[in-house]
Amino acid sequence: MSIELIGRRPVVAPEDLIAGLVPPPHFGRASFDSYAPDPEHPSQAEALAAVRDFAAPHLKRFRSRKGPGVGLYLDGGFGVGKTHLLASLAHALGPSRAVFGTFVEFTNLVGALGFIAAREALSGFAVVCIDEFELDDPGDTLIMARLMRELTDAGVCVAATSNTLPDALGEGRFAADDFQREIQAVARVFTTVRIDGPDYRHRGSLAFPEPATEAVVATLAGSPRAALASWPALLADLTQVHPSRYGAYVDGVAALALTDVAPLEDQNQALRVVALVDRLYDRDAVIAAAGAPLDSVFTAEMLRGGYRKKYLRCLSRLESMAHAALEHTRPV
What we know:
Elements lengths: L13 H6 L22 H14 L15 E6 L5 H12 L4 E5 H11 L1 H8 L4 E5 L6 H16 L3 E6 L17 H10 E6 L18 H8 L4 E5 H8 L7 H4 L5 E7 L5 H16 L3 E6 L8 H5 L3 H22 L3
Parallel strand pairs: 1-4, 1-5, 2-3, 3-4, 6-7, 7-8
Helix pairs in contact: 2-3, 4-5, 6-7, 11-13
GO molecular function: ATP binding; ATP hydrolysis activity
GO cellular component, one term: cytoplasm
Protein name: Cell division protein ZapE
């Protein structure tokens, strides 16, 4: 039965926000043993060892907190396994000792519970795992700088992933020079571990399939747990849903069939698409799209700007999801 995506208005109860801070289905079985470092890039094996070492003290059953918490920051390009390692850390410690969420999920937590209540809730864990750490606006910078400081002061450790070095957060996004004190405060929390290597999803240049035909889109739309939407209608609908709720927005969607795809018109649209694609990818969804090629949705100007790395990660994930859709629609 087709899922009606357009018009969904998910509401997530505050008490469910903490319970939902676990690795997403795509990384539901991630473990240190299942991470396969590329031998041509020794930094991957070094990062695996660093995360294992970071986890070790927290695996001791009766560990008591002594002194401030410490931070580990996994920095590297997209597709090198940063999220896999972070999810492995969360799984190794278990949900009673570690929480896992994207950066936007933690800022939403503060918005929903209030700063004090969010800090108190997170202070009950040994480790807070923050995926896709980024400072996209001044408000987030102030909130996260304070949250990192107060959590580590309380003895909580923080592990994060990003494709931007801590002291360069916010660069090209807003007047970051005016917030250097806060940015440096965030940077001081972390020991940075660099991970090099190509994107594991394709190990080379992106190679998108041709835009889907109407027949392919119809076939995918008829598959179990599929949603059908026109690109313009989807973009308009996303403006009515806060990005922090995009996970709930696509819950239950295993396949997204799109029609009338066209290049995005502005950066706000583009960032909403990035957030949506991330949540679909987390849920192992596939995408078939008719219209303009998916690799043309971000304009050349967007790809030169401050959000370049976000858009490139999104394209990498879109390419993987589009190829997966071909398997779903290939005649038996």
